[in-house]
Inverse folding.
């Protein structure tokens, strides 16, 4: 018990004296140097670092150009090597590739629309109005729009007012991109 009291007394005495608590300026090695703001410390550290690196002697324009050309030459050699490697890889995989057969003509997915014939005055051509009613994304109101297309009618079968089905096709003239498929309902 007496040992503990002695230790406590020593610890208390050490904490009471300010000189004992903090190391002296001589111990830290910064006796003469005042406390600098952080910005100044960083600037001095940068300056010391720059001074440690040996300065390069200035080069002439010809020396810089020669250095660039040497670097470009090395890059060209690396590119050539990579291309040769790619060609060799392609040739090695050539026997594994299966030749694709010539593609047969495929109609694809052509659009089909139903509309009303507006005009049949032109020969072998009808003008069809396609009405679209859709709900507006934001306001949920029904928005009605229509667009007219010219369709090819080989037999001059459709008349004004008929309901017809037309299908998308290759360009048949400057304005015709559709063909008549069938007359759904005749005009009364």
């Amino acid at each position: 018990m007496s040992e503990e009291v002695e230790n406590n007394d020593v610890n208390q005495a050490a904490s009471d004296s300010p000189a004992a608590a903090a190391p002296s300026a001589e111990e830290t090695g910064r006796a003469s140097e005042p406390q600098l703001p952080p910005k100044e410390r960083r600037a001095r550290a940068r300056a010391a670092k720059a001074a440690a690196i040996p300065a390069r002697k200035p080069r002439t324009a010809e020396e810089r150009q020669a250095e660039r050309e040497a670097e470009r030459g090395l890059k060209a050699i690396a590119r050539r090597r990579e291309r040769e490697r790619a060609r060799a890889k392609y040739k090695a995989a050539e026997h594994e590739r299966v030749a694709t057969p010539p593609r047969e003509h495929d109609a694809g997915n052509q659009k089909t629309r139903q509309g009303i014939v507006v005009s049949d005055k032109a020969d072998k051509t009808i003008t069809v109005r396609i009405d679209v009613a859709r709900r507006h994304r934001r306001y949920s109101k029904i928005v009605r729009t229509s667009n007219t297309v010219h369709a090819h009618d080989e037999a001059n079968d459709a008349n004004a007012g008929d309901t017809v089905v037309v299908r998308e096709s290759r360009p048949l003239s400057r304005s015709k991109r559709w063909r008549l498929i069938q007359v759904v309902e005749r005009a009364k």
Q: What stands out?
A: The longest strand covers residues 125-135. The two ends are 122 Å apart (CA to CA). Helices lie at 2-16, 18-21, 25-28, 38-52, 61-92. The chain is about 35% helix and 25% strand.
